[in-house]
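FORM 12-B: Structure-to-Sequence Request
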């Protein structure tokens, strides 16, 4: 079944996102996911909901909020895509090659353009990219996480709390399916110039080819991106 572009949803704890063509069909949809929420992004009509307000650890879905903070900073002129950010030892060790997590293999001590970091985070889900941006914008990842939560509140997300830029396990960090979908719809609606990166199937940087981790893009069902995530706590989750 082809997923119309106007449909956006999140299924937490489910390996595959299934969207349907209308609300009547959505009533027939069932999932083993613990939390799920699906809307028509153009109208806001709720197509499916299951424990949509139950908090859960976000895993890499937190990177949607990280990118929203970045997109807003570029939109308001606080940053430009050509700004360069330094790769600290903390970013390299925590999210880079030594970490064993998803990474864009940023070299210790190097400087990287913001546009490249954005693509690394979106396409490769690069944890080092997130931390590099966080430290460059706010001085530390802790300070940046505070900005993420403050920005969430400004967008009307009253429950979600962020403790880091990556979504790696952290005490007190949680989101809800409903708020993730609201955030996804906001990014889709407000930042068309950046939304294109979510459908980018691969990204070559520093002579390293990196493929998009979102399995929906290769399924030929009309999906145009957004985010996947996994930790032992949260299970597998998709926003699409």
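FORM 12-B RESPONSE
SEQUENCE OUT:
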């Amino acid at each position: 079944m082809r997923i119309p572009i106007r449909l956006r949803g999140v299924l937490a704890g489910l390996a595959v996102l299934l969207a349907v063509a209308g609300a009547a069909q959505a009533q027939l949809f069932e999932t083993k996911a613990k939390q799920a929420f699906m809307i028509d992004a153009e109208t806001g009509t709720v197509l499916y909901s299951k424990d949509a307000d139950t908090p859960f650890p976000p895993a890499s879905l937190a990177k949607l909020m990280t990118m929203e903070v970045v997109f807003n900073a570029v939109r308001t002129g606080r940053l430009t895509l050509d700004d360069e950010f330094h790769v600290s030892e903390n970013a390299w060790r925590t999210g880079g090659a030594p970490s064993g997590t998803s990474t864009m293999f940023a070299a210790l001590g190097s400087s990287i353009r913001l546009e490249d970091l954005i693509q690394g985070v979106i396409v490769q889900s690069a944890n080092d990219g997130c931390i590099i941006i966080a430290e460059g914008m706010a001085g530390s990842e802790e300070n940046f996480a505070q900005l993420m939560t403050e920005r969430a509140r400004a967008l009307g997300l009253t429950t979600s709390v962020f403790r880091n830029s990556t979504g790696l396990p952290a005490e007190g960090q949680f989101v809800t399916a409903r708020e993730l979908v609201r955030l996804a719809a906001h990014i889709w609606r407000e930042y068309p110039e950046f939304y294109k990166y979510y459908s980018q199937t691969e990204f070559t940087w520093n002579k390293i080819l990196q493929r998009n981790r979102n399995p929906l893009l290769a399924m030929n069902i009309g999906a145009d991106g957004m985010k996947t995530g996994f930790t032992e706590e949260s299970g597998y989750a998709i926003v699409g």
